[in-house]
């Protein structure tokens, strides 16, 4: 790296790597599905459970966490597919039961919707949507690291560990236990975001 280029931050409390970029077709696939489903009155694909874990997560973020506020509202109202919970659990290296409990979705309800291929309710979708900015945040951090990172590190697995570890900034509470309310998700996002500016520049 040139001396004239500012060294990018490393992930806090862990080695970091730049995840392999998802295939170019991932974004195009998600875009095509979202566009096609909008024409039919739906703004998200019914399933985000195909492909590799990295591809599934990229598809989920592309389809269910668009940049526009009105688009995000539409995604929540339309209903995020239940398979998004399984995709998040896999990316975070947590169990499906852990993620469902964290966002107050009964596991029996989740399993039924997964079996039937149906969408979550608006309330359930809002809780899932509240997790996506946390995932996008650590993915963005990892993307700034460049070639400095070891190959074995995963930003989303690191996030899963962070979410399940008691945090002094949260009064010793595990962040995962605060994700069932909007205020809790906001607080967790603030604490996670503070690591970027406060822990590793």
Key words describing this protein structure:
mainly alpha
Compact overview of the structure:
It is built from nine helices and no strands. Helices cover 57% and strands 0% of the residues.
Describe the protein in words.
- The protein is globular and about 45 Å long.
- About 19% of the residues have low confidence.
- The protein contains 9 helices and no strands.
- It is mainly alpha-helical and 201 residues long.
- It has one domain.
- The protein starts with 23 loop residues before the first helix and ends with a helix.
- 57% of the residues lie in helices and 0% in strands.
Proportion of helical residues: 55-70%
Order of helices and strands: HHHHHHHHH
Number of domain units: 1
Unreliable sequence segments: 5-9, 14-46
The description of the largest β-sheet is: none
Write the layout of secondary structure elements.
Layout: H1 24-39, H2 53-64, H3 69-78, H4 83-92, H5 96-102, H6 107-116, H7 122-145, H8 155-163, H9 182-198
Helix pairs in contact: 1-2, 2-4, 3-7, 4-5, 7-9
């Amino acid at each position: 790296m040139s001396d004239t280029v500012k060294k990018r931050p490393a992930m806090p409390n862990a080695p970091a790597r730049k995840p392999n970029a998802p295939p170019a077709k991932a974004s195009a696939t998600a875009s095509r599905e979202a566009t096609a489903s909008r024409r039919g009155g739906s703004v998200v694909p019914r399933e985000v459970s195909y492909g590799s874990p990295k591809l599934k997560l990229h598809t989920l973020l592309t389809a269910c966490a668009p940049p526009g506020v009105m688009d995000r509202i539409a995604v929540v109202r339309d209903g995020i597919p239940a398979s998004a919970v399984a995709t998040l659990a896999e990316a975070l290296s947590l169990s499906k039961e852990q993620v469902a409990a964290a966002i107050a979705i009964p596991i029996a309800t989740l399993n039924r919707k997964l079996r039937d291929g149906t969408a979550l309710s608006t309330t359930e979708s809002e809780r899932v949507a509240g997790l996506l900015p946390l995932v996008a945040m650590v993915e963005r951090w990892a993307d700034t690291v460049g070639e400095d990172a070891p190959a074995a590190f995963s930003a989303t697995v690191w996030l899963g560990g962070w979410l399940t570890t008691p945090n002094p900034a949260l009064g010793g509470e595990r962040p995962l236990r605060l994700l069932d309310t909007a205020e809790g998700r906001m607080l967790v996002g603030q604490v996670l975001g503070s690591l970027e500016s406060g822990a590793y520049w």
